[in-house]
Amino acid sequence: VEIPPKSPDGSEKSPQSKELLTSNTASTLCISSRSESVWTSASRSKWDIYHKPVIVVSVGAAIFLFGIVITSLSCIQIRNKNVYKMCGPAFLSLGLMLLVCGLVWIPIIRKKQKQRQKSQFLQSLKSFFFNR
């Protein structure tokens, strides 16, 4: 019969309980590292903040212009006139949709940035004075 070795500090913990402790600590560190970004206010560049809506706006504008070209080709007498008549408005609508979504996205990001800059204390004071 083997006797498990005692730990140097005299505690009688099994190896499984030590593994559970380390895995629990590791998961706690992962959770805290995820929430750490909420508390740190690292300044980001304008490109980091607005790069997604700028890309959507530029792609939407390019597709919209392509739709204008395709639609104008349907006015000229060519062989595949029906294809241009079908594809032109599709590109126009897709490009316009992306263009508008990107243009609406920018003020939403600005509003979120302003909300992040305000502290919780100032927001509570504001609600206290204006809700009387």
Automatic annotation (TrEMBL):
Chief place of localization: membrane
Sorted UniProt keywords: Membrane, Transmembrane, Transmembrane helix
Membrane topology label: Multi-pass membrane protein
GO molecular function term, any single one: phosphatidylinositol bisphosphate binding
Cellular component, GO annotation: plasma membrane
TM helices/strands, residue ranges: 54-79, 91-109
Intracellular or extracellular location(s): Membrane
Keyword Membrane appears in the UniProt entry: yes
Pfam families: PIRT
Name of the featured protein: PIRT protein
Species this chain originates from: Mesembrinibis cayennensis
Organism placement in taxonomy: Eukaryota, Metazoa, Chordata, Craniata, Vertebrata
